[in-house]
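Hi C.,

You asked whether I'd gotten around to modeling the 152-residue construct. I have! Everything is below, sequence then structure, no commentary in between.
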Amino acid sequence: MIIRTAVVEDVTNIVRLLANDKLGMQREDFQEPIPTKYIDAFNKIDTDPNQELIVAESSDLGEVIGTLQLTFIPYLTYQGGVRAQIEAVRIREDQRGKGIGEQLFLWAINRAKERGAHLLQLTTDKKRPDALRFYEKLGFVASHEGMKIHFK
């Protein structure tokens, strides 16, 4: 498996991954050709030095089989620290259970350390109990309550 920074040619496969679950089907607009809003979003991510959109590519298949986005948030607390955040984690359905997610997370943990982050955080939807168990197995602790307001 190769873990690398995503390129614009990966966007269709990334959106396919994001849309391929119960929650993703409700919020993504996967179609081919991919809507330009996704290409526009990719370009914003790609030019922001605090964003890293990452893919896992199968060495055998030469296809994108996983993704996550890693964000670095500089702030004043922790004496001007940097917090890293993982979002949009997906592993292709036929590739789950093969250790790909764990390898991707170990890569992200090391990358956060390389970039000087003092912590790595994520949120997970309460409707994804398997994901919660996976994150706990990797050492993440549910130490805070997350809250959101969705804007339409």
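If it helps when you're writing up: The chain has one domain: 2-137.

Thanks,
B.
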